[in-house]
Amino acid sequence: MKVFRKLIPLGLVLLTVASCKVGQSYKRPEVNFPEEYYGADSLRDSVLTGEKNIATLDWKSYFKDSTLVSLIDTALSNNLDMQKVAKEIEIGYQNLKQSKANFFPTLGASPFKYNREYYSEYYNNYGSNRSRRNHGDNPPTTLYTERLEYVSSLQASWEIDIWGKFRWQKEAAQAEFMKTQEFKKAVQTALVSEIASTYLNMLMLKSQLTVSKRNYELSKNTLRIVNLQYDAGETTSLAVQQTKSQMLRSKALIPDLEKAYAIQETKLNQLLGRSPQEVKLTHHLEDVTFDSAYQTGVPVELIQNRPDIAASEYNLIISNARVGITEAMKYPSLTISGGIGLNSYQIQHFLDPLGAGFAIVNGALFQPIFQNRKLKTNHLIAINEREIAQLDFKDKIIGAVGEVSNALVTIEKLQEAHDISAERLKVTNKGVKDAFLLFQSGFANYLEIINAQEDALENQMELVRLKMQLAIANIELYRSLGGGWK
């Protein structure tokens, strides 16, 4: 009981000292957010007029295409990057559990140890009492038993977290684990965006193939009429050659587009986590629509909505915790260790706790004094790394605001270009019809109809490209605002 009374004041001292935590608690740095995103004022005033923030929409609600929704569902289950991220999360969770275990003592056991030592005549322990007791004043010249013992013990060691080193390690592990969660969200957001973009590219190529094949058939029909005119002596062989060249130019677009389509199809299959195979597209690019009944919110909401910004902040929290760890390493560490067990020179008394039992309690205070400046260097490096992480965090926010602004401007200007191209398409289509009628009537030559067809083909392909780019711009706006992971 006296021993326990002596230990009570020591325990109170340890509890008091253990509350001395070095380092500074994390505080989010001040960031000057603009009140709204730059540019595209007319778009926000006329189109983005809904009440719900686009970033809060889950991707199934945002995408209206059932085929695209099915593809994204498959990718989230089978994509290899998503599977790797799941393993990273598990690693982070195990490291977090390990950081919590640092607060508890370590415990080890030696169930049974047998020790028998032999010494020769001139070994310097010759004068020990036991050798004299066993062999008298005339020990043998051969090896003899000097020490014989049987030991069984249980040892424990506990480092007191005086300066908060373990608490900082736990905070760093917690932030690391949360960062892996945000990384998973970021990977999912990127995956959803990449699948949608690839899918839209395939729809664009599919539409362009339709346009090219239709234009090729029109060119063949034109060549047929020119050949008839040539046979009738109404035109020259040059007209036949140039008309045929135009037809072959239209035909040459088809294999190029088919090749590009196959490449995009392979890319999509890879995103889906499977080998190349046919992807059946039941919709057309003209069917793609995006609900505009939403709004972009304000820039400050990016911290909650963008996984990459959240991950960057967790990096800053980890860097701040490392400053605390490296500072705590400069101060003394206190370790309490102890052990209990049995120790006997004779096997018949080994299990007698009164005769063979022992108990040991040790306390060690270690103060690093000269470590070749390593501790100070590590602390100063950690401080600078924290400042770099803070700058990275601010830079990530500025970049995210810029991405949203760029996406808004892109949508606005692409919509303007699309409307112009759609109006021009009406003109070129009418031009092709008029030129063909005049050509059949003999009031237009082959060059006029070739030029009209080339102009119409170019415009049709351009309109398809603008439609696709406009759709991808809407996806980019959704991604840049932090949508796609919910």
Give a quick rundown of the structure:
The protein is an alpha+beta fold and 486 residues long. It is built from 13 helices and four strands.
CATH class of the largest domain: Mainly Alpha
Q: How far apart are the first and last residues' alpha carbons, in Å? A: 61 Å
Low-confidence stretches: 1-8, 126-133
Structural class category: alpha+beta
Strand order of the largest sheet: 1-2-3-4
Architecture per CATH nomenclature, i.e. the level-2 architecture of the largest domain: Up-down Bundle
Protein name: TolC family protein
Membrane topology: Lipid-anchor
Pfam families: OEP
Subcellular location: Cell membrane
Provide keyphrases for this structure:
486 residues, alpha+beta, Outer membrane efflux proteins (OEP), elongated, transmembrane beta strand, TolC family protein, transmembrane, MdtP/NodT-like, lipoprotein
